[in-house]
């Protein structure tokens, strides 16, 4: 029974990361209709920023987290500038292909700079806490709490602020939004900035738990893709629910499946859903 | 006067059409006499691999270039072709040629089955679907150790005496590549190729004209996979051993990059893309380390500034100058 609770906790940790990444992707997809397959690579770059700042420059972890979250939107806007001309020409699949190009470029730049070894980031929170008989490391508690707080803040931002409602307006009807004076391009850059900041936060949280590696973004972005299709493209609630469910499902599967096949849950689920519902669960066109 | 101008224009067109044929034939001839210059075995192998990657990209060209469906599972099908051939050859001692035929047939039948749910999805969903499929296939190849030997790798794939030398394999791949290219050329101008073009341009309109979407897409998927699987089997024969990484989605990405850079829908685009990116960067030793990085940069450049790829760009410029050039 302890094992079950332990796995639920692990599921919540992994689910938090999936949710933060998927939220960014769903914002981009929902607002400006770009399936940003390179989002996982941005997440990976953020983890390397943390590694460089804490390990090479010897800064404190908290400073590194702040710098990563501040720097990531800049990178996000650069990526947006690559996507934009492709989006203007608007041939369905080419955005996805451009994303693959960015993914390959980012991953291999990092591999050339840092090499193909796994890197270790030392977190500030060491030691464990005893929660109702469960042994939990402090970093994992930090991940769960920080994810929930940032998700709540994002929702407040989207629903209660003027800038948040411009994003929602563009998501609902781009031409209508530009008619009332919303600059689509600015909103696009803003969305990319927020989404990459979320990815930066996710990477900063997970870096001390898992090792940092130049391909670490690919499995995460593929799961986020699956979450998007299952939870409805552009749906914030769907991304949150989907992210935690997937994290929990993967963690629980260890109890009754051989470990090698654990990866298959997200992709098998996605294939199954698309087989019976080719436009995703909520039927929105990509 | 007007007549003269027309005449000149006509002769110019005829000239370029001939020039193209001469150009292509001389490239083939150059490739055929190349081994006579006694290049090193390394260069021969690299060029043979160039033929194989060109063929794999040519397979993707049938689906993406002609029928307009962007599959990101072709790396997996390349790997399944290679593994089917390799397992039959190395573990069951099946005759080389028979194993190659079985590998191609098995992989394309499998693709036919997979295409049934896959073709129901459209555009980006199709890409996501096939990408997930690729991951599942890689994981299965990794985990089914009793069949594929898993991460240990499958070794001991042999070639018959006629192909045992590097030159033998070189010519075999060259001949097959020329045949496949001719096949794709004929295919593009055939009735089915034209139906695929109409599906690519406007699916709804095509189906309202009575073009069967399901049938056409399944045939495109199966033919496309058959060509890529043949390339996979050749790869297994040329290298002699296989690891699960050959089924990985990275291969699918690379095939996509070769095709997009070369020019989707053109006949020579896949060859230009595969040779230009794979072979050239492999021959320049200094670039070896930077290969994937260069792929990424060139891919982004092409998708932004040259969406038709190198050959598509050249073709468009030529057609601008010589409007009669439509068949190339």
Descriptive notes:
The complex is a heterodimer of chains A (286) and B (328). The mean pLDDT of chain A is 85. With 286 residues, chain A is mainly alpha-helical. Chain A is built from eleven helices and two strands, in the order ααααββααααααα. Chain A has a single domain (2-276), classed as ABC transporter involved in vitamin B12 uptake, BtuC. In chain A, α1 (2-32) packs parallel to α5 (138-160), α2 packs antiparallel against α3 and α3 (61-89) runs antiparallel to α4. With 328 residues, chain B is mainly α. Chain B has a domain at 40-250. The A-B interface holds A 35, 82, 85-86, 89, 91-98, 100-109, 111-112, 222, 225-226, 229, 258, 260-261, 263-264, 267-268, 270-271, 274-275, 278-280, 285-286 and B 70, 72, 117, 120-125, 127-129, 131-133, 135-136, 139, 142-143, 253, 256-257, 260, 289-290, 292-293, 295-297, 299-300, 303-304, 307.
From the alpha carbons, calculate the radius of gyration of chain A and give it in angstroms. Answer: 19 Å
Number of strands of chain B: 2
Question: Mind describing the biggest β-sheet of chain B?
Answer: 2 strands, antiparallel
Tell me the helix content of chain B.
Answer: over 70%
Shape estimate of chain B: globular
Strand arrangement within the widest β-sheet of chain B reads 1-2
Q: Work out the largest interface and the residue count of each chain.
A: A-B, 45 and 36 residues
Our count of helices of chain A gives: 11
Mean pLDDT of chain A: 85
User: Spans of chain B of 5+ residues with little confidence (pLDDT < 50)?
Assistant: none
What's the CATH first level of chain A? Mainly Alpha
Name the CATH architecture of chain A. Orthogonal Bundle
User: What is the count of β-strands of chain A?
Assistant: 2
Tally of helical segments of chain B: 14
Strand order of the largest sheet of chain A: 1-2
Q: Which fold name fills CATH's third level, the topology of chain A?
A: ABC transporter involved in vitamin B12 uptake, BtuC
* Helical content class of chain A: over 70%
Largest beta-sheet details of chain A: 2 strands, antiparallel
Multimeric status of the protein:
heterodimer
Number of domains of chain A: 1
How much β-strand is present in the residues of chain A?
Answer: under 5%
